[in-house]
């Protein structure tokens, strides 16, 4: 995005894409992704959402958009597992949602408006929002719903937690996005499928709330028994019958702490990175999948950006591989 592209709620990227040409046969993601220019037609748009003051656990997840930008150079565009090349996707970095230093409700307002603004200017593109903590998902989905007025939105959530905490005790935090969407009437509980809750990290009261509002969920024990491919087919078949569009949200704390040391709330017994990546490739192939966010990744906790930040970029790319695969089938 250039300075004169005219977005009200989005600033240009803080890191510029100035990739030097290397091996002419080995295109890297930082060479493929450019900054957005006015009038440019996009297949995929990346949007940084650098907010983490709303985290229950102190987090520098606001630094993650730039951490992901800095790691694109580590990835080629071709995935040998799926025999898919992203090289001809039109991908641009729209920049970062404008944030206020102390006013979290204002930040959430800006996030919602940024989603509406980005989609209204690029109606055919697939939005990828890079957080930030999980509080950003509530305003992002509200903006997504406003743009797609009249359509029913479903949520495919990968998370160790329900994120159904009450709004009275902590306000709109990274523990409340699904509660906020349900109680605002944006999303029905029965249109949420959460894959990954496990262990001792969800209060029984919030499990009861999930059941009372017909939230669908697969514990990680169920995933291990049934296999991630089976669970994904079942979850997507259900959502396909219920909703018009599917919004995918990935809280990186769904992963076992061994795979995601930079997730402040990651735990023992979590999902393996290979399971999550396969699930997201399958999600990308679903024609109703229409948006993605990735949240709660704190690069300050990552050992030299070698584990969690690269996994975050990989998450995005696997969804894009699924999208590219379905494009090839039409």
Cα end-to-end separation: 30 Å
Gyration radius over CA: 18 Å
Total helices: the number is 11
Percent of residues in beta strands? 15-25%
- Can you tell me the residue ranges where pLDDT is under 50 for at least 5 consecutive residues? none
Mean pLDDT across the residues is 93
Please bin the fraction of helical residues: 25-40%
State the total count of DSSP E strands: 12
Order of helices and strands: EHEEHEEEHEHEHHEHEHHEHEH
User: Which class do the helix and strand fractions yield?
Assistant: alpha/beta
Choose one word for the global shape. Answer: globular
Major sheet summary line: 10 strands, mixed
What order do the helices and strands come in, and which of them pair?
Elements: E1 10-11, H1 29-32, E2 34-35, E3 44-49, H2 64-71, E4 78-79, E5 84-85, E6 91-97, H3 104-121, E7 126-131, H4 137-147, E8 153-158, H5 167-170, H6 177-183, E9 192-195, H7 204-212, E10 216-218, H8 220-226, H9 228-242, E11 245-251, H10 273-285, E12 289-295, H11 308-329
Parallel strand pairs: 2-6, 3-6, 3-7, 7-12, 8-9, 8-11, 9-10, 11-12
Antiparallel strand pairs: 1-6, 4-5
């Amino acid at each position: 995005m250039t300075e004169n592209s005219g977005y009200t709620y989005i600033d240009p990227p803080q890191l510029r894409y100035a990739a030097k040409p290397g091996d002419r046969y080995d295109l890297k993601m930082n060479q493929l992704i450019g900054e957005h220019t006015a009038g440019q037609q996009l297949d995929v748009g990346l949007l940084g959402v650098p907010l983490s003051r709303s985290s229950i656990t102190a987090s520098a997840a606001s630094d993650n958009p730039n951490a992901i930008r800095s790691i694109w150079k580590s990835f080629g565009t071709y995935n040998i597992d799926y025999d898919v090349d992203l090289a001809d996707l039109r991908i641009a970095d729209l920049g970062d949602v404008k944030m206020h230093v102390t006013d979290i409700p204002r930040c959430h307002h800006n996030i919602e408006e940024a989603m509406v603004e980005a989609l209204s200017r690029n109606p055919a593109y697939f939005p990828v929002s890079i957080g930030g903590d999980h509080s950003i998902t509530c305003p992002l989905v509200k903006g997504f719903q406003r743009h797609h007025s009249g359509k029913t939105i479903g949520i495919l959530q990968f998370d160790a937690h329900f994120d159904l905490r009450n709004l009275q005790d902590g306000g709109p935090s990274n523990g409340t996005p699904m509660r906020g969407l349900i109680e605002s009437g944006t999303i029905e509980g029965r249109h949420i499928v959460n894959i990954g809750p496990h262990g001792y990290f969800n209060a029984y009261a919030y499990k009861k709330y999930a059941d009372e509002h017909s939230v669908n969920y697969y514990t990680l024990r169920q995933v291990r028994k049934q296999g991630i491919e089976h669970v994904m087919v079942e979850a997507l078949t259900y959502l396909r019958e219920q909703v018009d569009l599917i919004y995918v949200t990935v809280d990186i704390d769904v992963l076992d702490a061994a795979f995601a040391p930079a997730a402040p709330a990651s735990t023992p017994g979590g999902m393996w990175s290979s399971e999550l990546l396969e699930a997201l490739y399958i999600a990308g192939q679903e024609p109703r999948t229409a948006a993605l966010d990735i949240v709660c990744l704190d690069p300050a906790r990552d050992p030299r950006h070698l584990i969690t930040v690269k996994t975050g970029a990989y998450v995005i790319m696997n969804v894009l591989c699924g999208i590219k695969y379905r494009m090839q089938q039409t």
